[in-house]
Structures are given as structure tokens and as C-alpha cells.
Amino acid sequence: MKIWESDTLSDVIYHGASCYVGAPTVLADINNDNRYEILATGWYTVKAISDSGTEVWNYDISNYASCFRGPALADINNDGYLDLVFGTDDGKVITLNGYDGSEIWVSDLAADYGKPFNIDHAPVIGDFNGDGQLEGFVVGGYTGYPDTVNSYGRAYAFTLGAETVPEWTMFQHDIVRSSRVPLNWETGIAKESNSGGIIVNAAPNPFSDDLRIRVALQTPGPAKIELLDLSGRIVRTLFDEPYHSGEKVYNWNPKSINLEPGIHFLMVTIEGQSKIVNVEYLE
Q: How many CB atoms are located within 10 Å of the residue 262 CB?
């Protein structure tokens, strides 16, 4: 594995590996040292590598199974560190302690399904049902070539048991894929914040009429809810008012501004910290 300086193309990091690394790497601060570690998967191995190229920890997947697409991250065991959640090509979902690479739990979906079950993508993580806990979602199955008539698959949603938010919503963290850019990278859309104690849930989603926006804050202060388009442009400030700590529900009707159908983003900001969730408007 190599990382190059973008201006000079000179080597910055080199880490040798004895296996094929096919999945994109994930960058995240898994030990809270304010520096990114590199999470890489190759064949039956998951590695955490420091920004100097040294190995932080190594995990070998049993039965030489592989993690095809890489992990998603969330604080599964509520210890304040990001943990790894990934699927394998033999149908298991595995969670690892991000700090030291030890197993938290393993769920054998292939055994539940009763047939070979390949998981070839990273799980999606979020509070899908608004219960304050994180859930995971994967899709797996098996495809036979060239005769695909007997192919099959199944989707699984499962409780991760963690109450820490904001969540690591997708493989590359958030809507700006911030797990693949430096810590201070600036984009047209503000990144999700891992601090500030902001919890946001919008339902129904997709929506065609009133949108219910549930906001919970740990600390009081001036709060702002803004609607953004896909380019990061602010379409409308929906609410801008002082906010006491705790939970509050806002109701907003998109027809009040003749909103264009499609994907939009809600950004909640308090004291310089922001949380973004995506919503889809169906006219």
C-alpha cells in the first residue's frame, strides 16, 4: 500500500502486504489521537495502519473469508471509540473494536439463511426507526453464472445496540465522503460533526407533505435548521431560534416554497457544530 504526496507524487507512506487489496481504504481516527488511521482489507485480513505506515492491529477473518468492500464505522460498544462493522463473502457480519481490533460480536447470516450467502458491500448504519439506537443493514445472496435462474438473495436489518450518535451513515462516512479526505478538507456541504451532541431524525422519508423533524440537543443555544440542495446551496432556512437542551419536533410543509422534487439535505447547526441528514421529496 502506498500513499503519495499529491503535489510531487513522492512516497509518503508505504506499507507492505502479502495479499491483494481490492477494496477502497477508509480513513478514520479510531483511537482518538486526532490523527487518521488507514483501514484496509485484503483477502482474509483487516488491517489498521497508522499515518506513518506502521501496523496498529491486524485481524484475520476465519475460514479465509474476505471482506470485499471494506467496513462501515460506528461506536458499537459505547466506549467512545469508532468500531468496525463489515460483511464477508461467507455470510457473516463482524464487528471489531476499533481501538485494538478485537471481536465484539459475529453474526452468521449464512447459517440463518441455510445457503451460501455472499455479502459484497459495506453495511449501512443509522437510526432507521427513530428509537435512539443504531441499526445495520446488509444485502447478500448468491449468483450463479451463466445460468442465473437459481440466484437468490435476502436483506437483513439488525440492531447494533449502540446509542451513540451521530452515526457513521455509510461506507465513506457521510454525504461528502469525508472518510477519504483529510481532516480539514473544505467542501460545499458542511460535514457531519462527531461532537456537539446533535441528534436529528426526519420522517416520513421520502415525504410528499408535512415533514416532521425531530431534534435533540445536549446543550442549549441558538439553533438553525437549513435545507440544502445537492450542491450544498442553502435553499431555505426553515427555523432559526434559541433552543433549550432536550428534544423538540418541528413540522414543515415543502409546498410553502414550491420545493423541487428530489434529494435534499437538512442541516442542523448549534454553536458551530452541524449535523446533516438527507431527505427525499416526492411531489
A: 13
Q: How far apart are CA 170 and CA 120, in angstroms?
A: 14
- What Å distances lie between residue 109 and 51, 88, 116, 135, 154, CA to CA? 34, 10, 9, 16, 10
> Which triple of cell numbers denotes residue 121?
458491500
Nearest 10 degrees: Cα torsion 251, 223, 135, 234: 80
Mean pLDDT, to the nearest integer, of 58-64? Answer: 94
Assess contact for 122 and 69: CB atoms under 8 A: yes
Q: How far apart are CA 264 and CA 253, in angstroms?
A: 14
Beta bridge partners of 85: 72, 95
Q: What is the DSSP string of 122-180?
A: PPEEE-TTSSSS-EEEEEEEE--SS--TT-EEEEEEEE------S---BTTBSTT-GGG
Rounded CA gap, 50 and 36, in Å? 7
Which of 78-87, 115-124, 125-134, 228-237 is least confident?
A: 125-134
- Strand pairing partners for 11? 4
The residues, any chain, with a CB within 8 Å of residue 213's CB and separated by 6 or more, are: 200, 201, 202, 225, 238, 249, 250, 251, 252, 266
Task: Determine contact, residues 273/200, Cβ cutoff 8 Å.
Answer: no
Cut 0.70: pTM above it: no
**How many residues are recorded in the chain?**
283
